[in-house]
Amino acid sequence: MLQEGAHGKWTVSSSDESTEENSDSEKPSTSSLLDAARGRTSGPQYPCSEARKAAHKRKASPLKLSDKKISTKIPPAEKQRTSQEGLGWCLSSSDEEPEDQEKHAHKETLKEEKCDAPKEHPLNLCKDDELSENRKAEEYDETSSEAQDTWDLLNGGNPFRFFLTKVRGIEQSYNSGALHIKDILSPLFGTLISSAQFNYCIDVGWLVRQYPQEFRKKPLLIVHGEKRESKAELLAQARPYENISFCQAKLDIAFGTHHTKMMLLLYEEGLRVVIHTSNLIAEDWHQKTQGIWLSPLYPRLPQGTTGSAGESETNFKSDLISYLVAYNSPTLKEWIDLIQEHDLSETRVYLLGSTPGRYQGSDKEKWGHLRLRKLLKEHASSVPAKESWPVVGQFSSIGSMGADGSKWLCSEFQESLVAAGSSVTTLLKCDVPIHLVYPTVNNVRQSLEGYPAGGSLPYSIQTAQKQLWLHSYFHKWSAEISGRSHAIPHIKTYMRPSPDFQKIAWFLVTSANLSKAAWGALEKNGTQLMIRSYELGVLFMPSAF
């Protein structure tokens, strides 16, 4: 659906089965396992969202245009596009509130069946050409100069340790200083002993191939939120690999997801933490804009060290341990102990997580947007009262915000975003402009991936029609400085720049989209914060640098 707003045209995806708050009934069924066993498939061979499945289906059997009058002139974005058939599926996390989903689940299933004009042609996965097409997104051959570039990055070339992912099909200069997953897992970064991958959408076979040959049999723990058939699919993918074990994140509140994206990498030389925005699937590392925070290499503490040894000024070590403890999983005890044994004192960022639950008292400030509010009050410099510094949010999925801004966005959420120092009262929050960046139809159409990129931008049309007031906050996606205007954003960032965009009060990169499921919503007259999903991000503040 196309909407005209104050900031131009933007799109509402009708792939409305948003997975951030999906019920298990919307996950892939066992029939897909049977299909796979018969050697054919109508979608990706790993659990993912309805939006990505629809995108994959359309890509597998596109509409054939026979009208000869149609111009064959290739639009500029098309020329840059590298061949990547068989890519555009899996994930994202649009966040409908449960009541919205329950109302539309049945109706939309019928609509999806009627609307999909192209008939599904079963793909034979045994065909060599099909396999080669599916792996084009994986091809990543590092030149020696790129390896040197990566080495320089590790040695202080980026004091903030914030990186974008490499993008295929853009000018090479724009990939200087960017990272691919193979860079992160390369021996340059350390001699791997074992690793843990926390994520939402995972293609196990692809993930294994991203590790260097010499590390592929090292112990790998996958932390996920899949249940029932989806869990069975994930475990089936891992059967050929004896070194892979699993930890299922508890999701006791309906429609929550395990949306966190983190790597814990244990080396002979120490430990590294990577917090990022990409799913563990080929297309998320191919032609999308994604963000990564890469920790320093944390050395092991001398034996016998106890207590708060190895803590940073940002309290990162104890916050990371608290986040892992929240999973309440014996499987993660080993990693908690390993973190205890390392020196994380060089960390300059604050950890900001969400874990499912209903929190009261002092626990309310441990997670979600109230955690952000607390950090900003304690550590952010007071923004000059005479200037109204805007709040900018950028994300790949939107949840239900209510009938107007006062229900959540411009009340509790904005109050957290505008908190700063002790002078929070000097600025009325209604005076603070909010700019929300979300791709338009043209952004998607002209992207390197074309329309299938929309599969990772789910925003239910039903939800959108109930919150037309939100449109006035929207701004289109543009990233000229980084050469990524045509690389659809799956990154999520929130920040507080000065009115002239020359300064910044704080910057956050996170897995959390614009939703109550991710950030939490107050209940019981503001005495309780309810969060549905696991999320994780890092907050940059000038005072820590």
Automatic annotation (TrEMBL):
The record's subcellular location field reads: Cytoplasm; Nucleus
Site (Interaction with DNA) location in chain: S515
- Example of a GO biological process term: single strand break repair
Would the keyword Transmembrane helix be found if you checked this record's keyword annotation?
Answer: no
**Which terms in the GO cellular component ontology are assigned?**
cytoplasm; nucleus
Q: In which residues is substrate bound? A: K261, K492
Q: Which GO terms describe its molecular function?
A: 3'-tyrosyl-DNA phosphodiesterase activity; double-stranded DNA binding; exonuclease activity; single-stranded DNA binding
**Renumbered residue ranges of the record's region Disordered:** 1-149
Basic and acidic residues bias locations: 65-82, 101-138
Active site annotation, chain numbering: H259 (nucleophile), H490 (proton donor/acceptor)
**Per UniProt, what is one Pfam family of this protein?**
Tyr-DNA_phospho
Query: Which keywords are on file for this protein?
Result: Cytoplasm, DNA damage, DNA repair, Exonuclease, Hydrolase, Nuclease, Nucleus, Phosphoprotein, Repeat
Main localization (coarse): cytoplasm
* Subunit architecture: Monomer.
- Known role: DNA repair enzyme that can remove a variety of covalent adducts from DNA through hydrolysis of a 3'-phosphodiester bond, giving rise to DNA with a free 3' phosphate. Catalyzes the hydrolysis of dead-end complexes between DNA and the topoisomerase I active site tyrosine residue. Hydrolyzes 3'-phosphoglycolates on protruding 3' ends on DNA double-strand breaks due to DNA damage by radiation and free radicals. Acts on blunt-ended double-strand DNA breaks and on single-stranded DNA.
Q: What family classification does the UniProt entry report for this protein?
A: Belongs to the tyrosyl-DNA phosphodiesterase family.
Q: What name has this protein been given in UniProt?
A: Tyrosyl-DNA phosphodiesterase 1
Organism for this UniProt entry: Mycteria americana (Wood stork)
